[in-house]
Design a protein that fits this description.
Number of strands: 8
Largest sheet: 2 strands, antiparallel
Helix content: 40-55%
Number of helices: 12
Strand content: 5-15%
Structural class: mainly alpha
Distance between the termini: 105 Å
Order of helices and strands: HEHHEHEHEEEHHHHHHEEH
Strand order of the largest sheet: 1-2
Radius of gyration: 31 Å
Number of domains: 3
């Protein structure tokens, strides 16, 4: 027996190397050609995991999978949703470390409740905030209560966590800049500042122009002139707005957001204003202009008198 021992050792070593080589080759192979997502649920068994992420039912390959689980210490994996896009070893390493998929929740600049509701429905969120009930709404309006930004979440995160985080960030920012409100700024409250900022947000995306447009609206508020802002009319007509503002729309006294009819500001914000729009409303002063008109190239032409404004309207709008 002793004289066969060296030969037996060699055979065992060769078998071990062969098995180890097969195991490494198996674990370094692609699971599938295309990427896909897979959710590891709590208390998922090792065999359930194999059936979920690996296509083959070959007994030898299943045995290699089980052997590798123990040799490579993958016995403890964390529940969650994973992107399966690489070889088996890397996939199981992700599961061991809990490197689950991270999603983006983007509150877009100037979005409104209609667009936001549709967007939320498309996300993998647990909607525990139907009709934005987790936020203290003002006149049933969520506009102006959330700060546009990108927020990250895992699958099935509670929507209320993200909305309350955004709402808290908005409040913190407004509280901070309100201290810098100039003495000649006619806004009477922080909420008025948010309402005006939401209008500015819809008028321009240019930071420089926002300050100038904000100065126009502040000037109008100061002299008690109507804002006459088209975006407010549009908001009051939503969600059925067809894209055209008619003369009847301009005269409509039933539209609470018709700033061609109502005095001062509308009852609520009309969009989610960004920090730059909040700055343009709150940390700004009235300027010397009373009118502005789009030049058709993404900018605006400002004027001090109505006659001058009409000239620019005829020049840029009636071509």
């Amino acid at each position: 027996m002793i004289k066969y021992l060296p030969r037996l050792i060699v055979i065992l070593l060769l078998a071990s190397f062969t098995l180890y080589g097969s195991l490494k080759s198996f674990y370094n192979n692609k699971i599938k050609i295309e990427t896909f997502t897979y959710e590891v649920k709590p208390n998922t068994s090792i065999l359930d995991l194999y059936d979920g992420i690996y296509e083959s039912n070959n007994l030898f390959e299943k045995s290699l999978f089980l052997l590798g689980i123990y040799l490579f210490d993958f016995r403890t994996i964390q529940a969650g949703e994973y992107l399966i896009d690489d070889n088996l070893f890397k996939v199981l390493t992700k599961m061991k470390l809990g490197e689950t998929i991270t999603y983006k929740f983007v509150i877009s600049d100037g979005t409104n409740k209609f667009d936001l509701s549709l967007y939320i429905d498309s996300l993998k969120l647990n909607n525990d905030c139907e009709d934005f009930s987790c936020i203290d709404l003002v006149n049933d309006s969520i506009e102006g209560l959330l700060l546009p930004d990108t927020y990250f979440f895992k699958s099935n995160t509670n929507l209320s966590l993200l909305l309350n985080k955004s709402s808290s960030e908005l409040k913190t920012y407004v509280d901070m800049i309100w201290r810098d409100k100039p003495i000649d700024n006619p806004l009477k409250s922080k909420y008025e500042g948010i309402i005006l900022a939401s209008i500015i947000e819809k008028e321009s995306s240019s930071i420089d122009e926002k300050m100038k447009i904000g100065g126009v609206f502040l000037n109008r508020l100061k002299i008690k002139m109507r804002l006459q802002a088209d975006p407010t009319i549009i908001y009051g007509l939503m969600p059925d707005f067809n894209g055209d503002i008619t003369k009847q729309d301009l005269r409509d006294k039933n539209n609470l957001y018709n700033t061609y009819v109502i005095e001062s500001l509308p009852p609520t914000p009309i969009s989610m204003p960004t920090r730059s729009s909040l700055d343009a409303a709150i940390t700004n002063s009235p300027n010397e202009y009373l009118f502005f008109v789009a030049d058709g190239k993404g900018k605006h032409i400002f004027s001090k008198t109505y006659n001058e404004h009409l000239e620019y309207v005829n020049l840029y709008q009636k071509k």
